[in-house]
Amino acid sequence: MRTVEWHDGNVRMIDQKAIPWKLEVVDLKDYAAVAAAITDMTVRGAPAIGAAAAFGMALAAKNSPATSLASLLTDLDQAGAVLKAARPTAVNLAWAVDRMFKHALSGFADAQALRDGLLTEAQRVADEDVAINQRMGAYGAALIQDGFTILHHCNTGALATVDYGTALGVVRAAFEQGKRIHVLLDETRPRLQGARLSAWEMEQLGVSYDILPDTAAGYYMQKGEINIVLVGADRVAANGDFANKIGTYQVAVLAKENGIPFYTVAPTSTVDLTLASGAEIPIEERDKSEVLTPYGHAITPPHFHARNPAFDVTPHRYLSGIITENGIARPPFTDSLKRAVAGEKV
Ligand code: MRU
Question: Is 234 in the pocket of ligand 1 (CB under 6 A)?
Fold first, then answer.
């Protein structure tokens, strides 16, 4: 099944908090529940939360008692604000809500036509995501040689998207081409997306992998065991600086120090050309309990102090390229990203 989908008038999603122990789905009946699922990371990963928000808007339209177009638009405006506030860093969330709202303004005859139109548009967002991931997979797989070991951070696979994946979509595409590859998965503290979700996905696909403590990446780079680093992105600024899961920046610096190519794989819906540089990207800080009591296992008394930034920003100078659905953007990114976002082949 897909990570997020419309099912029987509800938004159905895989509960990513339960993986790898259980594969469970939750059915959400209103947009506030969708927003809560984004905040508590039942669904996570930039493209997946974008698709969840798109379906959340369709759900808001379905549940609204409005009989006129104008009052339905007012209800959608309110739902969009709640969904956008669910998490701040991944721009796909705001991108999806804005796309749905723009579609809502595209001249529907009445409230019921708008409800139907929004569901169709949400399905389109989801279907496009899968197709885009497959295109990025094909571009990225050209960089992967037979026998490569790939270092990966966080989870960017089918679970982080509607299906297939971004950086792990490249891994999947290379594997499907018959290349013999091995993936080193940073465990990705504190939520352990690498150890729990990426490893589970590699198990499903049959791709060879090892989970690494986050602190081991430099060790294997120094030993010459890593050929390329692939990560995802939550927001890419106009100059190519990008926010991704906390720890990405230190991996990028280590890769440069060790002369290893470092790529981010991101659909153009993750590019935010309104921001000149990564310094403007809002970074989410999550509750300290995720650090002190990961998954219910206390490693300190709860009153101990901790900080928990969910993302960091990697300056564009560490990037070999940005793999998009329109090709691989290369420096200078201010030019190549603008063209990729405009739909040009780069
Ligand atoms: O906090 P998360 O798990 O939502 O963070 C996810 C990431 O940082 C991913 O690398 C990013 O969203 C790209 S996913 C295709």
Answer: yes
Structure-token match 């999603």, residue found: 13
Q: Quick check: CB of 47 below 6 Å from ligand 1?
A: yes
234 is catalytic: yes
CA of 244 to the centre of ligand 1 (A): 6
- Among the listed residues 78, 69, 75, 77, the one whose alpha carbon sits nearest the alpha carbon of residue 113: 69
Q: Domains in the chain, start-ordered, CATH in brackets?
A: 4-133 (1.20.120.420), 142-341 (3.40.50.10470)
Tell me the best of 41, 244, 248, 271 to mutate to test the pocket of ligand 1, counting ligand atoms within 8 Å of each CB and taking the most: 244
Q: Which residues pair with 185 in a beta bridge?
A: 152, 211
What is the per-residue pLDDT for 93? 98
The span from the CA of 290 to the CA of 234, in Å, is 20
Query: Please, which residues bridge with residue 311 across strands?
Result: 245
The whole-number average pLDDT for the span 123-134 is: 98
CB distance 45 to ligand 1 below 6 Å? yes
pLDDT digits (tens, 9 = 90+) for 90-113: 999 999 999 999 999 999 999 999
Question: pLDDT tens digit string along 266-298?
Answer: 999 999 999 999 999 999 999 999 999 998 999
**Best of 89, 156, 287 to mutate for ligand 1, by most ligand atoms within 8 A of CB?**
156
Predicted TM-score (pTM) above 0.85: yes
The alpha carbon of 102 and the centre of ligand 1 are apart by a number of angstroms equal to 26
Amino acid at 171: V
Determine whether the shortest distance from the Cβ of 89 to ligand 1 is under 6 A: no
Please state, in angstroms and rounded to a whole number, the distance separating the CA atoms of residues 245 and 262.
15
Cα(37)–Cα(57) distance, rounded to whole angstroms?
14
In short, whether 154's Cβ falls inside 6 Å of ligand 1 is: yes
Burial class from Cβ neighbours inside 10 Å (0-12, 13-18, 19+) for residue 191 reads buried
